[in-house]
UniProtKB/TrEMBL annotation:
GO cellular component: cytosol
InterPro entries assigned: Bacterioferritin (IPR002024), Ferritin-like (IPR012347), Ferritin-like_diiron (IPR009040), Ferritin-like_SF (IPR009078), Ferritin_DPS_dom (IPR008331)
Name of the protein in question: Bacterioferritin
Catalytic activity reported: 4 Fe(2+) + O2 + 4 H(+) = 4 Fe(3+) + 2 H2O
Alphabetic keyword roster: Heme, Iron, Iron storage, Metal-binding
Binding positions (Fe cation 2): 51, 94, 130
Any one biological process term the GO annotation gives: iron ion transport
Species of the source: Nitrospira defluvii
Name of the gene encoding the protein in the UniProt record: bfrB
Amino acid sequence: MKAKQGVIEILNKVLTADLTAINQYFVHAKMCSNWGYERLHHKVRERSIDEMKDADELISHILYLEGVPNVQRMNTVHVGETVPEQLKLDLKAEQEMLTLLSDGVVHCTKVGDFTTRHMFEDMAKDVDEHIDWIETQIETIKQVGLENYLAEQIHKDS
């Protein structure tokens, strides 16, 4: 099936953001593991894997639309040196992704590509949930203090 005008370009922009997020979250997860924050390690690693699944879906969809997935391009990976810095950088990445997906929904509606629009809407719901989780972590740190928050991150959820 041939893609409608501009859809492959938007899909590749979302793919670029996903490939960047995979790496950013993977590094953050490894850092959390190294620091002994197992709960955070598993949560952030899970998010990296979710981004890999999204990238897989995007690549398949681009190929379905007879386009070429651009996997050579990646944005700057921002690595936080502390947990609060990581959370802020991940929040920024997710907010940028939400904007990209929202723009994609608008474009796909305009050109009549409802399958891609639906895919972007599903991804946006997932991004919304992750933004909520990150904002909750940042607020929890404000309320209980960084030391208390980090002490809770040492053990993995059962």
